[in-house]
Design goal:
Blueprint: H1 2-15, H2 27-38, H3 44-51, H4 55-68, H5 89-102, H6 106-113, H7 117-126, E1 155-163, H8 171-174, H9 176-190, E2 203-211, E3 217-222, H10 227-243, E4 250-253, H11 257-260, H12 262-271, E5 274-277, H13 287-301, H14 309-325
Parallel strand pairs: 1-4, 4-5
Antiparallel strand pairs: 1-2, 2-3
Helix pairs in contact: 2-3, 2-4, 3-4, 6-7, 10-12
């Protein structure tokens, strides 16, 4: 009776360390079971009762111990050696091609290829193409997401443009007719005109800098996007990050004229930063800052009614502070500032 109770306690202890959900024994318990039979002369029935397994299981581990030794007690793959009903590689390639090129679902693909939709879905899951959100809208290729390991390892820079708001408000809030009248009145008062002598209200060139790891943003509004202006923004951004304990190592930009200039490369070398460029006509490479531009437009530029451009520009610092310190970023599960350690004002 003592032996039975002891064996139950041992089984309970071993059960907590099973190698997988369907394993009756751990490799260590299998070895003890096999040695009881092979080396100590126990019968398979007694050993099976001791470890609370079936007699065929006890014989199996004993036989494997005789032929392979302790190494035979390890888990083996349960994958079959052959799978005669496996989907042919040619069919899998055709399924993937239709998914990439035409963005069809399992039912449509199955109808064209004469394959069950469940089979098509299984293939798409194995290829990680079961969700259309995993596929790039332009190229049809799987989206490759990346993130640098620490703040400052890579920063993204770019320029986005917003038309200035005329006095009295823009057309988004006051309507097309009234907005156009406000724009003409403002342009007439300022004297700004286009090359065709049409009154214009001007453009706000918003230079943006995003840290790849933390998504902390630095933003400036300038009057142009020339190389000298972009370099000045970069210097001030690098100094701003340095004040917060972040050392910038690389900078990624698109192929705009200000970033292709010799001055830009020389400024990066002076700052000890490695300049990187995106592939031409491939803005997805700089997708983090492109997505930030959309957030900037929705959260600040067109978020509410502004009676003039000065009012909108005055609202930018508060919005940037809210974005960095308080707004939860969907990609990191918290505010961007939470990914930077020892940041001044971090615990306010």
């Amino acid at each position: 009776m003592v032996r039975v109770e002891l064996s139950r306690n041992r089984f309970t202890h071993q059960e907590a360390f099973v190698s997988h959900a369907n394993a009756a024994l751990t490799p260590r318990a299998r070895l003890r079971l096999a040695r009881l039979i092979v080396e100590d002369g126990w019968s398979p029935t007694a050993a099976a009762k001791m470890f609370m397994v079936s007699v065929p299981t006890a014989r199996k581990w004993a036989a494997r111990f005789r032929s392979e030794g302790p190494a035979g007690m390890l888990d083996r793959s349960s994958r079959p050696r052959t799978c005669p009903h496996r989907t042919p590689e040619v069919v899998k390639r055709r399924i993937v091609a239709l998914r990439w090129r035409r963005r069809l679902g399992p039912v449509q693909i199955g109808g064209q290829l004469g394959v069950a939709p469940s089979t098509v879905h299984a293939v798409l899951v194995r290829c990680r193409l079961n969700r259309l959100s995993h596929i790039d809208r332009v190229t049809g290729e799987p989206i490759r997401r990346y993130e640098h390991p620490h703040p400052g390892a890579m920063i993204h820079v770019d320029v986005t443009k917003f038309a200035n708001i005329p006095h009295g408000g823009g057309h988004r809030f006051v309507g097309r007719q009234r907005g156009r009248a406000n724009a003409i009145a403002t342009a007439t008062r300022t004297g700004e005109r286009s090359p065709t002598y049409r009154p214009v209200i001007g453009t706000a060139f918003v230079h943006t800098v995003i840290d790849d790891h933390s998504r902390v943003a630095y933003v400036e509004i300038c009057t142009d996007e020339k190389a000298v202006t972009a370099i000045g923004v970069l210097r001030r951004a690098v100094a701003w990050f340095a004040d917060h304990g972040v050392t910038v190592e690389r900078v990624l930009s698109d192929n705009g004229s200000c970033y292709r200039s010799h001055r830009w490369r020389e400024a990066c070398n002076e700052l000890g930063i490695v300049p990187k460029k995106t592939r031409p006509y491939r803005p997805q490479t700089n997708g983090k800052i492109e997505r930030f531009h959309r957030t900037l437009a929705d959260g600040w530029a067109y978020a509410r009614f502004y009676s003039n451009e000065n009012e909108r520009r005055s609202a930018l610092p508060a919005w940037i502070h809210s974005y960095n310190h308080h707004r939860t970023h969907s990609a990191i599960g918290g505010p961007p500032i939470s990914r930077i350690n020892n940041l001044p004002g971090h615990h306010r």
